[in-house]
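Appendix C reproduces, verbatim, an entry submitted by the partner laboratory led by Prof. M.T., so that reviewers can inspect both the input and the predicted structure.
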Amino acid sequence: MNQTLDNIRDEFMSRENVWTLGGFFLVVAGAAVGRALLKGGWRATAGGKPPLDPDADDTDWTEAIAWAVVAGALVGVARTLARKGASAAERHWS
């Protein structure tokens, strides 16, 4: 019984799985930080709350589209940086 649990632990906690899990958390954290920075940047430049709900009556098309484009680009860049950072760390520590 103990040998079976050891085999399961060794398989689940393989180096590849640990790096995959760590990379996933870095991607999520990078996206969250990117979104927070984006909201702050919108408030600083546009002077108001970002249009998080494109269906809202007080959101015009220009604001909604600008938010979608900028948010998608910045969150994508943050996710890419996090993934590349995780890959670089894995190569460095492997």
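The radius of gyration is 20 Å. Additional entries are available on request from the coordinating office.
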